[in-house]
Amino acid sequence: MSRKPLFAAALLLSLAGTASASSFIVTTDAVVDGIAASTNATSDASSSLRDNKIVQAARDDAASFVGSQGEIRGAKLESAFSYIRQQAPQLQASDTQLAQAILAL
Which residues form the signal peptide (predicted)? Predict the structure, then answer.
């Protein structure tokens, strides 16, 4: 058997492996960059709310609201809801979701 076909097969296999690896790296980089951009945007939005005095003052009211399944609605919590919805009018979240987010900050 000639060495030429074996050499050609080995060369093709090594090139195919390199192409697959580089495609995987490009795909992985694109996914990681997309996740990083999303995380940074979310982090920026939540850090601005985390540092806000109105939202911080509503933490106890938010705990009461969540614990009572929406029965207890404190004035500080209502103020925080208003502030959050004013800052992010595109946000489509229920009062319960907002209260839980305030507790998570």
Answer: 1-21
Answer yes or no: do 102 and 57 share one domain: yes
Interaxial angle between packed helices 75-87 and 95-104, expressed in degrees from 0 to 180 and rounded to the nearest 10: 90
Residues 30 and 70 in one domain: no
Q: Which token pair is 41?
A: 């945007």
More confident residue, 51 or 56: 56
Contact 105, 90 (CB under 8 A): no
Same domain (yes/no): 43, 59: no
- Inter-CA distances, 83 with 2, 17, 20, 57, 97, Å: 78, 55, 50, 12, 15
Residue 43 has pLDDT above 60, yes or no: no
Is the model's pLDDT at 72 over the cut of 50?
yes
Domain of 33, in residue numbers: 1-51
**DSSP secondary structure letters along 30-41:** HHHHHHHHHHHH
- Is this model's pTM higher than 0.70 or not? no
